[in-house]
Design a protein that fits this description.
With 269 residues, the chain is an alpha/beta fold. Helix content is 48%, strand content 14%. An eight-stranded mixed sheet has the order 3-2-1-4-5-6-7-8, sandwiched between helices.
């Protein structure tokens, strides 16, 4: 990418994105970071220019892309300041949860090209998945650029209906916490059948991580992989009778995702 990129916020997610972009041959001199904390460390780590506040960005600066990677609660104070760039035609890419495109249009103006995205925390190790939505002003070229930027930390998908971002948030945005809880529960169940806690924790973590990798690499569906492990009348079948009962894991997961989606809609309103 031969474009000027202004990154607003460089915490864990912003840093993961920046690292991925530089690994994909985005030139460090094409990146300007606005980050009030740890500027010297960022410059040393990434070789990019860093300013503490927008006031440190020259008035003549013209970004092709502005990425908002700050926490949602900081948006009200930060986003309106960047309206000064709208007439220069950049794409504004947000990775903040709970902030719809209408929010950014209200802050920046109705002509702003807004891409709203929902990444998840495995992006920190390059194995995330991000789903994005583009406002009417986003061009096909800008959408392609956004895809390239977001692919630096994992897979990318798009939705045409922004309301679906709430469901995305509930499944993949919050989803890593569900998997971590599964690891906790599996380890605790191991302890309850007499395993040493350290061994139970190792078994749970390795099993979940290994199974996820197997599913990722396999051409077979998750249901087929499950069936492959399940011998009729065996130990796995006995466990699945519990997990697949009417009040089992599917029921719990559906209720959990519905609750998360409802809360996502509440936060965006």
């Amino acid at each position: 990418m031969d474009q000027n990129l202004l990154l607003v916020g460089c915490g864990k997610m912003g840093g993961a994105l920046l690292s991925g972009w530089l690994d994909r041959d985005l030139a460090a001199e094409d990146v300007l970071v606005v980050e009030p904390f740890g500027g010297d460390a960022l410059q040393n780590q990434f070789g990019v220019s860093v300013v503490e506040k927008l006031e440190g960005v020259p008035q003549s600066y013209s970004p092709d892309i502005v990425v908002f990677a700050v926490k949602p609660q900081a948006m009200d104070e930060i986003v309106p300041l960047y309206a000064r760039f709208v007439d220069k035609g950049p794409m504004f890419l947000s990775i903040a949860a709970g902030k719809p495109s209408s929010y950014f249009l209200n802050c920046l103006g109705e002509n702003a090209a807004i891409v709203r995205s929902m990444p998840n925390t495995p992006a920190a190790v390059g194995r995330g998945i991000t789903v994005a939505y583009g406002s009417d002003a986003v061009s096909k070229e800008q959408k392609s650029v956004a895809t390239t930027l977001l692919e630096a930390v994992g897979e990318v998908g798009w939705v045409e209906n922004e309301a679906l971002i709430d469901g995305v948030t509930a499944v993949s945005g919050s989803g890593p916490a569900y998997v971590f809880l599964l690891i906790e529960c599996l380890a605790q169940a191991g302890i309850e059948v007499g395993l040493d806690p350290d061994l139970a924790a190792r078994l749970a973590l390795a099993t979940v991580a290994g199974s996820g990798e197997l599913a990722r690499q396999s051409t077979e569906s998750a249901s087929t992989l499950r069936e492959n492990v399940t011998s009729p009348g065996g130990t796995t079948a006995a466990a699945l009778e519990i997990l697949m009962a009417d009040d089992g894991l599917q029921n719990l997961m559906s209720r959990a995702v519905a609750a998360a989606e409802t809360r996502s809609r509440e936060l965006a309103s």
